[in-house]
Amino acid sequence: MRLRWDMRMRNGGQVLVQSLQALGASKAFGVPGESYLAVLDALHDTQGQLDFILCRNEGGAAFMASAYGKLTGTPGICMVTRGPGATNASIGVHTAMQDSSPMILFVGQVGTDMKGREAFQELDYRAVFGTMAKWAVEIDQVDRIPEILARAWVTATTGRPGPVVIALPEDMLTTLTDTPPLTKPAKITEAAPAPETITETLSLLASAQRPLILMGGANWTDAGRAALQHFAEASDIPVLAAFRFQDQFDNHSPAFTGEAGVGMLPHAKALIRDADVILAINVRFGEMTTDGYTLLSVPNAAQHLIHVHGSDREIGKIYQPVLGIHAGPNAFARALTPVQGAWADWRSNARAAFGASFNAPAQPSPVDMVAVTAHLREILPEDVILTNGAGNFTVWPNKFFKFGKEARLLAPQSGAMGYGVPAAIAAKVAYPARRVVCFAGDGDFQMNCQELATAAQAGAQPIILIVNNGIYGTIRAHQERHYPARVSGTTMVNPDFAALARAYGFHGERVERTEDFAAAFAHALASDTGAVLDLNVSPEAITPRQTLSQMRAAAQAANP
Question: CB-side exposure of 445: number of CA atoms within 13 Å?
Answer without folding.
Answer: 28
